[in-house]
# Entry
Amino acid sequence: MTRMTMIQAIRDGMDVAMGRDDSVVVYGEDVGYFGGVFRATQGLQEKYGRNRCFDAPISESGIVGTAIGMAANGMRPCVEIQFADYMYPAYDQITQEAARIRYRSNADFTCPMVIRMPTGGGIFGGQTHSQSPEALFTHVAGLKVVVPCNPYDAKGLLIAAIEDPDPVIFLEPKRLYNGPFDGHYERPVTGWGKHSDGEVPEGHFTVPLGQAKVKREGRDVTVLAYGTMVHVALAAAEDTGIDAEVIDLRTLLPYDLDAITASVCKTGRCVIVHEATLTSGFGAELAALVAEHCFYHLEAPIRRVAGWDTPYPHAQEWDYFPGPARVGAALTQTMEA
Amino acid sequence: MSSPLSLFVPEPEVRPGGVPDFTNVHIAPAGEVGRPPVDIDPSEIRDMAFSIIRVLNRDGEAAGPWAGLLSDEQLIEGLHHMMLLRALDARMIIAQRQGKTSFYIQHLGEEAVSTAFRKVLKKGDMNFPTYRQAGLLIAEDYPLEAMINQIYANSEDPLKGRQLPTLYSVREQGFFTLSGNLATQFPQAVGWAMASAIKGETNIAAGWIGDGSTAESDFHAALVFASTFKAPVVLNVVNNQWAISTFQGIARGGVGTFAARGLGYGIPSLRVDGNDYLAVHAVGLWAAERARRNLGPTLIEYVTYRAGAHSTSDDPSAYRPKEESAAWPLGDPVIRLKAHLIAKGVWSESRHVQLEAEMLDTVIAAQKAAEANGTMHSDNRPSARDMFEGVYAEMPPHLRRQRQESGV
# Structure
């Protein structure tokens, strides 16, 4: 085991995958010589050469479109979209092409590829560097959608994603790159140095896609979260003293229904937390699943805490961000219901 | 005081009721355009984007430096392919009217482009076609029955009923799965070619796009990637003058030709008579050789004319004169190749009539064989169970539950 930040773990995951398999190529905007604006690909070009890691023109559609062609020609591209907010020009290639190559060709062609995207807020990025568009991908048949929340999972899930036979959207909560963040923005920044999930195995290992993880066992209420909100939910449980069971979904598609229902049927209460806007967010899908599968165990209405239905603001970041106070209030209300 | 601005909206010169007039279309005489070496500096052949490479002249003779690359046997085979494609189209349009399929896309007038180009590719190369390049399959003798099975979405449909008719996928024959949306395949072709170069292989890719779709941003994304990484790819623009009802001037804008789009990217850009089987083959070969020698991409504009409707859902008489097709100055590709072969003394009117009948018989035989496997509305369709398969390599739990819920 080695101590790593999440950015180091992601880099190490790509390094391990590239070292094991010549067909893994890494490219995107600023990804080559410079190593990416978040440094996720630092050193990979030097180690594997310009043919395996290189800068792409600023054309997200071109990045994903060429990656689909490469995947059809036996490669396993792992491309970076610099910010998830920049993925929209590639949306056609992702949703109508990558996601459906296998299906529409009856597996005559397949599309094993990973599209990495830094996601979420907490860094004063304003409306074009803070978005959480996961629901735009979970709505698409043929995609897998992964959101890690710590270095251990980030590396294990990324290697699993690169080795997966189908296209995977890999959303990296950028506020977690250099340390856990529980939404208490007024407190000093902490790193991954002392966090238990900052211990990462060396070399090859995977965290299977489609499996959630219980991050805190509890009896009172289940919190379904992913990404940065896992840390916020843990903080809210501490702050309120409510014995919440916090589940990190880790993979949104395919989701781990067994883990969700086991917990909610145990606690009888459910709070769903995500940073993305509320309406038609992934929380709506989770709420529907809980209602369908756990209705007769529920003792309180399912509650959602999410970003407001506004664009992600700049100066009002902490008014927008669903921090521990809002999550804590939802826990309290759910317990009182 | 400045005068008020006004918006310019291009219009074709003639609409229904008018008399087609192509006198303003400059057509260089056959044989006039030179054939540069494939390693020429692209900046030295910029004028080729504004001319038009032609081999067959009005007397059916092959002229100039692009002539002489195909044997009589190869030319007769090419005529076979074009006529087989034309016969298939004719029968499938009838089949659609009979309710045996929901939809069909024909190639009338454009048969030379895909059938001739296919002959410059080798096994292992990959096309990223549009829906109007079925000639790529025909010219490789892909079984007609398999194509019709797909068109009919019957029990033997290779794509299990998941795709609109004519959106084939045949990896084995270098034919990438067709999408049905537009231009997405262009950057994919470039990526496929880049992978070939990364792996140090020798295969090349060919991207295909129509005149209208060059307006999509994916067209430009493909060109910039191809240019930057010198991808071993041939970028084919089939200018058939009409994007459904929209004339090519709407996508082309002020640049004059679609080939000229490549110039800003430093890509050698050639314009060719798309109704001239010999010219299409010769120019395709030149571009393929550039790609194989690692000299990078080539853009080719094939100037042709969509003589038929866009699809079985379209009626062109609503937006262009019926006489326009006959007035088209580059003629018909089948008639032109036939005239050439007759001029060479290796073909005759009677053999042509005989071949036409043979091609029709071939299609009818394949059609009968396919119909034994069912048609669109017969009972032996791909099963509802097939619908749930193949979304992922392994069916995830949520899809398994939905399949159970559907009762199949």
The mean pLDDT of chain A is 98. DSSP finds twelve helices and 14 strands in chain A.
